[in-house]
Amino acid sequence: QVQLQESGPRLVKPSETLSLTCTVSGGPISDYYWSWIRQPPGKRLEWIGFIYYNGVTNYNPSLKSRVTISVDPSKNQFSLKLRSVTAADTALYYCARDGYSGYGAHSDYWGQGILVTVSS
Amino acid sequence: DIQMTQSPSSLSASVGDRVTITCRASQTISSYLNWYQQKPGRAPKLLIYAASSLFDGVPSRFSGSKSGTDFTLSISSLQPEDFATYYCQQTYNSPRTFGQGTKVE
């Protein structure tokens, strides 16, 4: 059974960089796409972007100028960096694995989520 | 971006009821539509992918269907563990977008 676990600082100051890591266990990180998704308090889910194990990425244009997703297959981890954060970036951040069918992607395994608060 | 609009935003139901949730896409998305269930304080769980395919281990009381740009999630007989918020998601175009959620209470 594939399991994902987010880790990183839960409090980030405004204008600084949010950095999270997702550790994958129970299966290899290769041959799959891996996504970051967030959910501000009381709001809908927002897709941040994905990375393939070979490093190919796709980001949400609304965040693209501030986001970098990277992967380390040797550690079975992938990471998220979000620069110049504001209070609007306060959210539950989830990492997820993307499965694929003939009709696109679906996030079939998720981490438990980590609440990151942006505040001075 | 493709806008996903769910209705209703919330509904009240009882155990044993048949429940139907609708998701409308702002443009054609073929069958690139997923449904997730989220309980308070928990990560979303995949229920349905590709509009109508049941994910592994999901009870058969859940089903999905498509009519044009309207998609429906149905629960044939609501169980106590089904009280949750349900989200649709399109993956036809980037960025992937979610509906606003439907709370079943």
Features:
heterodimer; A: 120 residues; mainly beta; 7-stranded mixed sheet; 4-stranded antiparallel sheet; 11 strands; B: 105 residues; 0% helix
Describe the structure.
The complex is a heterodimer of chains A (120) and B (105). In chain A, the strands form two sheets. In chain A, strands 2, 4, 5, 6, 9, 10 and 11 form a seven-stranded mixed β-sheet that branches. A four-stranded antiparallel β-sheet of chain A has the order 1-3-8-7, with no helix packed on it. In chain A, strand 7 and strand 8 form a beta hairpin. Chain A has 120 residues and is mostly beta strands. Chain A is 0% helix and 56% strand. With 105 residues, chain B is mainly beta. Chain B has strands spanning 4-7, 10-11, 19-25, 33-38, 45-49, 53-54, 62-67, 70-75, 85-90, 97-98, 102-104. In chain B, the strands form two sheets. In chain B, strands 2, 4, 5, 6, 9, 10 and 11 form a seven-stranded mixed β-sheet that branches. In chain B, strands 1-3-8-7 form a four-stranded antiparallel β-sheet, with no helix packed on it. Chain B is globular. Chain B starts with a strand and ends with a strand. At the A-B interface, strand 9 and strand 10 of A face strand 4, strand 5 and strand 10 of B.
Question: What does the main sheet of chain A amount to?
Answer: 7 strands, mixed
Total number of helices of chain A: 0
Mean pLDDT of chain B, as a whole number?
97
Largest interface: A-B, 22 and 28 residues
Shape of chain B: globular
Tally of individual helices of chain B: 0
The beta-strand count of chain B equals 11
Number of strands of chain A: 11
The value of Rg of chain A in angstroms is 14 Å
> What class do helices, strands and sheet pairing of chain A give?
mainly beta
Percentage of residues in helical conformation of chain B: under 10%
The low-pLDDT segments of chain B are none
Order of helices and strands of chain A: EEEEEEEEEEE
* H/E topology pattern of chain B: EEEEEEEEEEE
**What is the residue-mean pLDDT of chain A, rounded to a whole number?**
96
